[in-house]
């Protein structure tokens, strides 16, 4: 019985370590500031940047390597500052487009609520946005 408690305890600790490591960005230390931010605010906090990136992950149903290039020095992980992956610049243009649309059309109060569009509006969990044909 005592061995079962020990096994359960160590299994719980192992699960906790795996969970924490799954949600950390490899290659970026806590004191290291994000680099090469061209659309997102340069003073964005680590927590807010992580929240934004996870939002992109969910909205497009992709992982980090969809937009970010791998490290070129042979190490494991992503080079988050690199522009080597062309999809990163596409993402930047989509962010600009979304901000422009929201500012022009949706930055007004409607029925007591502010409405806007997000990546999810068109992508709906897929890497390619769903397009609609308009019948004439």
TrEMBL record:
Keywords: Electron transport, Heme, Iron, Metal-binding, Photosynthesis, Signal, Transport. SUPFAM superfamilies: Multiheme cytochromes (SSF48695). Residues 1-24 form the signal peptide. Gene3D superfamilies: Photosynthetic Reaction Center, subunit C, domain 2 (1.10.468.10). It holds the Pfam family CytoC_RC. InterPro entries: Multihaem_cyt_PRC_cyt_su-like, Multihaem_cyt_sf, Photosyn_RC_cyt_c-su. It comes from the Bacteria. The reaction center of purple bacteria contains a tightly bound cytochrome molecule which re-reduces the photo oxidized primary electron donor. This is Photosynthetic reaction center cytochrome c subunit. It comes from Sphingobacterium litopenaei.
